[in-house]
Amino acid sequence: MTQRLPWLLITTLWFFSVGVHGQLITPVASEHQALSVETLVAPPSERWPTNGGNIYNQRYSPLDEINRETVGNLGAVWRVHLEGSGVGQKYSGEAQPIVSDGVIYLITGANSDIGAACIQKIVDSGGSVIAVHRNLGSKLTSICRKHPSKIELVKLDFSDDSQVNSLLDLVEAKKTQTDSFIALAALREEIPYGKTSREDLMKHFEVNVVPTVFIVQKLGESMSQRGWGRIVIGSSIGVKFGGGTSSFCYSFTKHCSEFIPNIAKKWSKNNVLYNVLRIGVTNTSAMQKSGTDLKQRTKLIPMQRAAQPEEVAKQIHWLASEENTFITNQVIAISGGE
User: CA dist 331 to 180, 214, 237, 290, Å?
Assistant: First the structure.
């Protein structure tokens, strides 16, 4: 049996309008995008690849050109004014800028706990992962450090068309090696329904729907030709209730992502199983930072508690693995009974 190579898309669920700011966005297919574990653990010399310089967050550079004698010669070259990350200026510039290949990235926000838990499940079961992420958070970093040969990192901003196009080129190149596709990437901005604009809705649609459609288009046909494949699309239990008071755009576009193309029935004949998982309230770091009153929210759940990321990851992994042999073309809720 050939080793299955699960493909996992992982970005943060953006509860704030977090952004990537800088001089230039390098196409994701660039050979410099996926950094090795060796690069991430070494003292930074030619780049500053993480918020702390390396994954140990030592914030130390071995460079010595700037010292006590030369520091007085430094002067400003350029500056940029940040308007704030969706909820005010105090959320801009919280982290150190990331510098790689001459590009400066300023990133705020957190990585997806569910995505990291999925990667952990996959590598624990012997699989390999291409992890498409937006922010290399501490959990994903820790997993990469423990399993350097199992994970290929690709950094991506789904709101940038050129990067999405480059990702699609990468998918085309990798499609014959990819047996499972898990889509968890999502944009979620807190916007009251009455203040939602056309631009807000289209922005969410372009991130939450469009990339997944074209990735599935490429991978589904390739999987069908090879006679095996698993596709799992992450949705939200919020679609069942019309979204929250400020998450209409997110829930509406997540509902769109539940639209399973008719051709998936044809793929089923060739052992390509396509399912959507409606994910309920989950106790993630992003949820905790969102301001949601988790105690009040869980009162609406029959099981009277939120899910843990590992619980959700377990179900995603099962649907994306050889253990799932007969469930396809379904929208399944993991929501504690909601």
Answer: 17, 20, 11, 26
Secondary element (H or E) of residue 206 = helix 198-208
159, 264, 277, 205 alpha-carbon torsion, rounded to 10°:
20
**Cα 333 to Cα 338: distance, rounded to the nearest angstrom:** 8
Residue 99 pLDDT level (bands cut at 50, 70, 90): low
Q: CA-CA distances (angstroms) from residue 76 to 72, 80, 95, 186?
A: 12, 11, 20, 36
Would you state the structure tokens that stand for residue 225, as one six-digit string?
């030709």
Q: What is the pLDDT of residues 162-213, one digit of tens each?
A: 888 888 888 888 888 788 888 888 888 889 999 999 999 999 999 999 989 9
Q: Which residues of 85-104 are buried (b: 16+ CB within 10 A; e: fewer)?
A: bbeeeebbeeeeebbbeebb
Other CB atoms within 10 Å distance of the CB of residue 122 = 29
pTM score above 0.85: no
Tokens matching residue 82: 């940040």
Spatial distance between the Cα atoms of 290 and 86, rounded to a whole number of angstroms:
12
Residue with tokens 């090795």: 36
Could you tell me the two tokens for 255?
């509902």
Measured CA to CA in angstroms, residue 43 lies from 53, 57, 64, 277 at distances of: 7, 10, 13, 41
- Strand-by-strand arrangement of the 272-279 sheet: 151-155, 129-133, 6-9, 180-183, 229-236, 272-279, 330-334
Q: What are phi and psi of 275, to 5 degrees?
A: -140, 155
CA 314, CA 320: separation in Å to the nearest integer?
10
Q: How far apart are CA 5 and CA 179, in angstroms?
A: 6
Three-class DSSP category at 181: strand
Kind of pairing, strands 272-279 and 229-236? parallel
* Residues in a beta bridge with 13: 186
* Sequence-ordered alpha helix ranges (H) in 290-338: 294-298, 309-319
Q: State the first-to-last Cα distance of the chain, in angstroms, to the nearest integer.
A: 39
